[in-house]
Amino acid sequence: MYAHPSRGDPHMTEKNAARLDWEQRIGLPSDLPEDGAAALTGTAELPAPAGLRSEDGTGHVLLDWQPVEGALGYLVHRADTVDGPYEPLDHRGGDVLAVPAPPYADSLVEPGQGYWYKVASWTDAGAGALTSEPVRGCPKAPGTRPPAVTVAVDAASDPVPLPPVWNRMIGAEHLSMLVWDEPGPGDADVAEEYAEALGIVRDELGVRTVRAHGTFLPECVSVGEDGSFDFSGLDTVYDRFLTTGLKPVVELSFMPAELASDPEYTIFEYKGIASVPRSWERWGELCRALTVHLRERYGADEVAGWEFEVWNEANLEVFWNGTQAQYHLLYETAVRAVKSVDPRIRVGGPGSAAAKWVGPLLEHCRENDVPIDFVSTHTYGNAPLDFRPETRSFARATGRPEPEILWTEWGVTPTHFHRVSDSVFSAPFVLRGMKSVLGVPPARQGASADALAYWVATDHFEELGRPPKLFHGGFGLLTVGNLRKPRFWALRMLSQLDGGRVPARVSGDGAEALVEALATRTGDGGSVDVLCWNGTLDQTKIDGAAALDREARVEVGGLTPGAAYTVTLRRVDETHSNVKAVWDALDGGHSDWPNDRQWAELRAADELFEEPYGTVTAGADGSLALTVDLPMPGIRALRLTRTGGA
């Protein structure tokens, strides 16, 4: 996890030493890429996309273009005049600005003002050449009522499975918090609430694995005078963790002091050592000994089903005092050590920040015949890029299986203590990212990743200090005390989709760039779910924007002609399923933590709002239509359940 150095909570008046050090070093690269690497697809510059066009929308300009084969994404540029200068369009997400695919809605605009746009393809080499001919857009001012969009669902299509990219994995603070025995923020029992949080994401979101930092922290691993490794601390942590029924993603970090070249090169409040090893041989011995120990304690077949990820964000100076070449050696030493014990164990990396270093690691593995089962990287404030050109190119070049693509950290912001994390704005953002990864089969050939792991499950998190108050802009889907934030409800609504995916196409003002949708139906056609949302990447609109509100007409075809359907409606917006608004109304910002009465009221409000929409009847052609308001930000979920036939 990393943060933008200039952003944080304006109410935080004191900064601890760890946070000050973080802000001085975050964002600095640990090293430049190695020279002379051969180009896999997706690593070299590509031509600009063709067919760039603009559409003037209410409160935004919509851009579309033709995809470029081999591109990982696209970087939109904007200017105030046709002659430029054209600058990358910054939607204030604090991280990668390139988007994985069109269309794109620019809502960082003023109605009636003209803007000029160009687009570049994005690869590991960065942005390529801009489109030669710019297009102009001029956003419309809002009228007296929200513009209309149409969501057309084809329930007659054969349903296809939804790849569970949203719940295969989730992030969490270091797992040793499961055995804390000291009072936590707001006098919370950290160990109990942390375990409860993992149970909630398991049961309500279907999460299966958890990725956390610090497998080699001092409370987990110690080194004896004879050089032996003692994993008894890790045993205590993993024994407790595995009672949750979840599986760990074993992140091989940080460096034990006895093995570190610079034991004083640390990060976070808990002083994880981000140093290269003094001895690469000893690093390999540590990774091998860990693998042997885990197999002996938990069973060879059990551990063979876990992923091992080598390090965290080594492309940032704050996380790694070595070079890219030294990271490649770190990775190679670790993967060979682990697989010398059990070649079934899946190992990957680089676990990088800002979608960096994936191509170089694949190239290193290709040139040196190094095993790699998955690539992992991170991004925030945007939908993830599409790394399939690189993994497919690697598979073609080596004859090996294509590595999986695991986004082992992803979220609405990389910035600690940012209010967007507690906001409704973040809820449609989550659905936008997940739908982007799910793709639109068959045009994008299915999912562009195998996991998109939200960072993190709970606000029990101490990287730059413990939570100072209940709503402090924490990364968690759940607060201290395990209240569910709007982002949690977004994932819950995704998990509630029943059956297989059927086509859902959006048309109208802001279609597929602001307003998006997913739909499913059960195999017998007895139930149809429609999930639609309205959101923008533009984080200047955290508090909403009336010009972007919409009214959605949901048209469902392929139903049983003449059949009656009971409809239920679930909502997430500023006044529904928004526990932060409940807290603001209760306290008015006067207190850091709730009292007993306020806790009781917050827990009573901690639910996904649901109401009956009514009963509707499909026409003779098997279709029906419903209308819902769709504010920005906002989510609506409709469930149609057949109750009677013609």
Task: Please provide a written account of the structure.
Residues 150-607 form the Glycosyl hydrolases family 39 N-terminal catalytic domain. Keywords: Glycosidase, Hydrolase. Mean pLDDT is 92; it is low at 2-20 and 33-37. The protein folds into 3 domains: 50-137, Immunoglobulin-like (Sandwich); 148-158 and 498-642, Immunoglobulin-like (Sandwich); 169-496, TIM Barrel. The chain has 646 residues and is of the alpha/beta class. It has an 8-stranded parallel beta sheet, with helices on one face. A 6-stranded antiparallel beta sheet has the order 22-24-25-30-27-28. A hairpin with a 5-residue loop joins strand 12 (222-223) and strand 13 (229-230). The protein is built from 12 helices and 30 strands. The longest helix has 19 residues, at 280-298.
CATH class of the largest domain: Alpha Beta
Strand order of the largest sheet: 10-11-14-17-18-19-20-21
The chain-level mean pLDDT equals: 92
Which overall shape is indicated by the principal axes computed on the Cα atoms?
A: globular
Helical content, roughly? 10-25%
Q: What's the Cα radius of gyration?
A: 25 Å
Per CATH, the architecture of the largest domain is Alpha-Beta Barrel
For this structure, what is the CATH homologous superfamily of the largest domain? Answer: Glycosidases
Estimate the strand proportion. 25-35%
Number of helices: 12
Class by alpha and beta content: alpha/beta
Distance separating the two termini: 56 Å
Largest sheet: 8 strands, parallel
